[in-house]
């Protein structure tokens, strides 16, 4: 199952007790924002299967499983919820390519520098920034006007490429001529980091993918 959380209140989302309670009550699995099948073109383009991958806020999503099926060999999954991590360790104990660790993304001192070649985040870092990795793929409902003032700060030294894809289940208007291929093309942003004034979102509740790479 996947969920569109465009209108969700993020209150308590940084609290492990909230997530432990939620995973105990709900069970099952779900992927926030998008499934791997939708994100595959972007992930394969920027994070090759041979990469050491870190998935932050993995929860009980099946995305990492799908990535292993697609050839990825080394995926570390971390989450603030001990309930989710214990659940996933049991579920994937026979898949050596998947590792799970109970950890708060706000303190990743356990990992030495350059432990990973790429990081994937689907919502976890909407309000938290990390500056120690070289390649990050952020999937979020935050448009550039909201996100770029944070991830575009000079201190991070990111070169940012933006993609926009409609939310799952979105039905394009009959008058719309865009294709799936069009979603794979980077979206231009202004020098200030915003969408051009003439740009119109096909889906007002689109999801935004920011590929951030260290410049230099």
TrEMBL record:
It comes from the Eukaryota. GO terms for biological process: methylation. Pfam families: Methyltransf_25 (PF13649). Keywords: Methyltransferase, Transferase. InterPro entries: Lys/N-term_MeTrsfase_sf, Methyltransf_25, SAM-dependent_MTases_sf. Residues 53-127 form the Methyltransferase domain. Belongs to the methyltransferase superfamily. This is Methyltransferase-like protein 13.
